[in-house]
């Protein structure tokens, strides 16, 4: 790039995508589009509607800063402070786990469990809530009688969940609780009809082998599942059973690496029906366990 060149969106995208590819980034073109659309405050498709317009120097300079950060391995979501999840824009604040698209499968399963009609309040709880994507998304797609409690041991996460709830107009239906999940759930027996969680499930010894943009930019609290990746599940499953009302359901995000261990823990619990849904790559991703009515 030269100082005298007048850059258009299409020129910048082509140059940046090639640069990202040379750095070994997998989604080079998409990353380039997301960053430029963030700078220009437009949708990605709109970059091509105005592809011949000359960009202002300030816009190009801001974009260059973001490109340099991405080339060094910083995730796009950290750079922009934004992530799209289930068709919704979510704010991603520092120190909070970046949502993954695989979690959308858990949303699909949860929506199938929420009734279209209900007398009174239908209470649910999300633990290890992080940015609050699970309860916020479900509340935004559910009738007004659905209420969620969001629990996390991280103050940053609880604050971030509140930002997203306010952003999508569901803050009045979301109760945020800053607490370790064990402390909170022990005091809430027979309370919920649905309990959701995307706990940390990476084995401690494997954290050093994760991609740098995960290892260096996601909080360890949201990654480290202990020696076998099952620490949180081991604590959560019996507490979840007690916290659920008869007929209630537990939905967990899982991985192939912990699937067998979780099923073993469930086998020793009082849960009845269980089933696992695979993601589009054929990996175990969401586990449903039901408490007998």
Order of helices and strands: HHHHHEEHEHEHEHEHHEHEE
Output the radius of gyration.
Answer: 21 Å
Strand line-up across the major sheet: 5-4-3-6-7-9-8
**Strand content range:** 15-25%
- What's the overall average pLDDT, rounded? 95
So what's the CATH class of the largest domain?
Alpha Beta
Kindly identify the CATH topology of the largest domain: Rossmann fold
Level-2 CATH architecture of the largest domain: 3-Layer(aba) Sandwich
Give the % helix.
25-40%
Uncertain parts: none
Give me the CATH superfamily of the largest domain. Vaccinia Virus protein VP39
Shape verdict: globular
Number of helices: 12
* Major sheet size, sense and barrel closure: 7 strands, mixed
Class per helix and strand makeup: alpha/beta
Number of strands: 9
Distance between the termini: 66 Å
Into how many domains do the coordinates divide? Answer: 2
Core attributes:
Helicase, Ruva Protein, domain 3; two-stranded antiparallel sheet; Rossmann fold; 18% strand; globular; 40% helix; 2 domains; 7-stranded mixed beta sheet; alpha/beta
Describe this protein's structure:
The chain is an alpha/beta fold. The chain has two domains: 9-72, Helicase, Ruva Protein, domain 3; 87-290, Rossmann fold (3-Layer(aba) Sandwich), CATH 3.40.50.150. Helix content is 40%, strand content 18%. It has twelve helices and nine strands. The chain has helices spanning 9-22, 28-40, 46-49, 57-71, 76-80, 104-113, 133-140, 155-167, 181-186, 212-215, 231-243, 256-267; strands at 82-85, 88-91, 122-127, 146-152, 174-178, 192-197, 244-253, 274-278, 284-290. The chain has a seven-stranded mixed sheet, sandwiched between helices. A two-stranded antiparallel ribbon has the order 1-2. Strand 4 (146-152), helix 8 (155-167) and strand 5 (174-178) form a beta-alpha-beta unit. Helix 1 (9-22) crosses helix 2 and helix 2 (28-40) runs antiparallel to helix 4 (57-71). The longest helix has 15 residues, at 57-71. The N and C termini lie far apart (66 Å). The relative contact order is 0.10. The mean pLDDT is 95.
